[in-house]
Amino acid sequence: MAEPTxxxxxxxxxxxxxxxASIQTSESTSGEIAFDVFVKDIASGSDQARLALAQQxxxxxxxxxxISSKFDIKYYTALLELEKNHQGQVALDxxxxxxxxxxxxxxxxxxxxEGGEGDGGSKGPQKNTYVTSASQTAKLLNAVAVDLLERNxxxxxxxxxxxxxxxxxxxxxxxxxxxxxxSTTIGGVDEQQFITEKLEATSEAKNVRATDxxxxxxxxxxxxx
Length: 225
Fold this sequence. Notes:
The chain is mainly alpha-helical. The protein folds into two domains: 11-113, no CATH class; 124-220, no CATH class. It contains nine helices and three strands. Helix 6 crosses helix 7 and helix 6 packs across helix 8.
């Protein structure tokens, strides 16, 4: 009695990203087998074949998390996602009058080639910690200090505030989300605002403000010429 074959044997030979992008399709020209038969064929295939297909399902975005050759609910759920996309393609082809027979493996290969399902090529949110150097911060520190303290900061003061800035940058990393043709960043530290708030809280800055206010008042009343 001949041993049954499964449609998994051809994709199981795939071993590189390039070859995974050109997954072989079913030899049937009369349309795909029913989904339940497709699932049973996969379940009865070898561990090696199932693991290869699991990797392809993950590459396409149909499989979430760590892959496995074990045929369980996680594997079945990934196949359901593939089937939804396959049925959608079949319905579309019928609507536009296409005579080309599209297999599940066609849909899988095309989805992989397009960068995965549902994420638009997005890399997802990524936390990036941007820590400024002493040279990058020195000019900004002195610019704010001249405005608030009417002087440049000393080297020791620059080192002190740089450490405070870097600590805040590590505490509040920026979150970047990238996709096809776009990139957005939220969070992070506004260095100028942070430095301004720290210097404004010093007694020296308060004294400078008080002195400036007194000087303005005296000029208005003619006390200073």
